Amino acid sequence: xxxxxxxxxxxxxxxxxxxxxxxxxxxxxxxxxxxxxxxxxxxxxxxxxxxxxxxxxxxxxxxxxxxxxxxxxxxxxxxx
Length: 80
Fold this sequence. Notes:
Elements: E1 2-10, E2 27-37, E3 41-49, E4 54-62, E5 66-75
Antiparallel strand pairs: 1-2, 1-5, 2-3, 3-4
C-alpha cells in the first residue's frame, strides 16, 4: 500500500535577489509517496517506477522544520 502525503515546511532557501534573504520564513511544500517516516524525518518520493518497483526522486524533510502534514490518499497494491 502506498500513501500520498502533502508536507509544508520552513527550511533554507535559495534566492535570486540579494534583498530576498531578509525574509523571515522560507516556506516550501511537496507532495509525494511516503517512503519512510521515523523520529526525525519524513522521506517522500516524487515518482514511483512500477516496472522495477522503486521510489525515485526522493526528498528528506526533517520533522523539526515541518509546519503541516496531510495524508491525501492511500493506493492499494494491484493483485497480479
